[in-house]
TrEMBL record:
<keyword id="KW-0408">Iron</keyword>
<dbReference type="GO" id="GO:0003824">
    <property type="term" value="F:catalytic activity"/>
</dbReference>
<dbReference type="InterPro" id="IPR005911">
    <property type="entry name" value="YhcC-like"/>
</dbReference>
<dbReference type="Pfam" id="PF04055">
    <property type="entry name" value="Radical_SAM"/>
</dbReference>
<protein>
    <submittedName>
        <fullName>TIGR01212 family radical SAM protein</fullName>
    </submittedName>
</protein>
<keyword id="KW-0949">S-adenosyl-L-methionine</keyword>
<keyword id="KW-0004">4Fe-4S</keyword>
<dbReference type="InterPro" id="IPR007197">
    <property type="entry name" value="rSAM"/>
</dbReference>
<keyword id="KW-0479">Metal-binding</keyword>
<dbReference type="GO" id="GO:0046872">
    <property type="term" value="F:metal ion binding"/>
</dbReference>
<feature type="domain" description="Radical SAM core">
    <location>
        <begin position="17"/>
        <end position="263"/>
    </location>
</feature>
<dbReference type="InterPro" id="IPR058240">
    <property type="entry name" value="rSAM_sf"/>
</dbReference>
<keyword id="KW-0411">Iron-sulfur</keyword>
<dbReference type="Pfam" id="PF16199">
    <property type="entry name" value="Radical_SAM_C"/>
</dbReference>
<dbReference type="InterPro" id="IPR032432">
    <property type="entry name" value="Radical_SAM_C"/>
</dbReference>
<dbReference type="GO" id="GO:0051539">
    <property type="term" value="F:4 iron, 4 sulfur cluster binding"/>
</dbReference>
<dbReference type="InterPro" id="IPR006638">
    <property type="entry name" value="Elp3/MiaA/NifB-like_rSAM"/>
</dbReference>
Length: 310
């Protein structure tokens, strides 16, 4: 058995759709965020590392160069031949649409890049940007809009200085769906002041609105963040690996099988990770989720199936 026997994974979906494995190539296009530059706030999210915004930080390489470097590594390691350009770092729609088009076009011009996955905030997807993404979709590219919600609770979003609320997520989702763009919502387990019940309710609110994909990962405490200061003061305690595995399994059970899990855990760079150290045990965590679902005799959509049976 494998995790994909219990969970509807994005990787398996792409394999079936495109006839071979499709790998993501992460891109840093040098964007910032509106809660850093003053348009929404200052300082950024409490869990977000500030090093990339240092005046001495190195400018990222051109998009084409990043894709070529990543492609060579993945091709050697996995034999990959098809790729999604994943604009990952910070808010990847936070620019003039004309500039965004140049960056996105540069990625799609690279050999074997079959589409885009765009990570952004719910308050940074104006109509012109959504129209641009819909145009790529109409050209036959695989297009995903990844919205960083993290929590459906406004008091939590305020506590971690997100600079937006659940209403902005709802509006962005509806605008994307009006253009038939698939959305992947990001949720974080272990946010300050939240427990397993909060995470379940966040999932429920996301599912009620409709979503095509989900990403889940534990909250990392990394150097150079306000959260790191909270942790050092004893004001924040991270999840244990056992707690996270149970919470992830709970979410999988409550998620309809047609919703794709793009990610079920997340790692952090070892040079900045403070805690929890197990965050970088990727396969132990994924195997733990698989084992927990196997132990329970459940899989994705189990709770909905039970309700339907009753």
């Amino acid at each position: 058995m494998a995790l994909s026997d219990y969970v509807s994974t994005f990787g398996q979906h792409l394999l079936k759709k495109h006839g071979e494995r499709v790998h993501k190539l992460a891109i840093n296009a040098g964007f910032t965020c509106p809660n850093r530059d003053g348009s929404k706030g200052r300082g950024g999210c409490t869990f977000c590392n500030n090093s990339s915004f240092s005046p001495n930080a190195r400018e990222p390489d051109p998009v084409a160069g990043q894709i070529e470097a990543g492609r060579q590594v993945l091709a050697k390691r996995t034999g990959a031949k098809k790729f999604l350009a994943y604009f990952q770092a910070y808010t990847n729609t936070y620019d003039d649409p004309a500039n965004l088009k140049q960056l996105y076009d540069a990625a799609l011009a690279e050999p074997d890049v079959i589409g885009l996955s765009i990570g952004t905030r719910p308050d940074c997807v104006p109509p012109r940007v959504l129209d641009l993404l819909a145009d790529y979709r109409d050209q036959g590219y695989e297009i995903w809009l990844e919205l960083g919600l993290q929590s459906a609770f406004d008091h939590t979003l305020e506590r971690v200085n997100r600079g937006h609320g659940f209403a902005e997520y709802r509006e962005a989702l509806q605008a994307a769906h009006a253009r038939e763009l698939p959305v992947c919502a990001h949720l974080i387990a272990g946010l300050p002041g939240e427990d397993a019940a909060h995470l379940q309710l966040s999932l429920q609110r996301v599912l009620e609105l409709g979503v095509e994909g989900l990403k889940l990962h534990p909250l990392h405490v990394v150097k150079g963040t306000m959260l790191a200061n909270e942790w050092r003061r004893g004001d924040y305690a991270p999840l244990t690996v056992e707690e996270y595995i149970r919470m992830a399994a709970d979410l999988v059970e409550a998620t309809p099988s047609e919703v794709l899990y793009h990610r079920l855990t997340g790692t952090a760079s070892t040079d900045i990770l403070l805690t929890p150290y197990w965050c970088n045990w990727k396969w132990r965590v994924l195997n733990g989720i698989e084992d927990e679902l196997s132990r329970r005799g459940t899989s994705q959509g189990y709770l909905g199936a039970q309700e339907g049976f009753l």
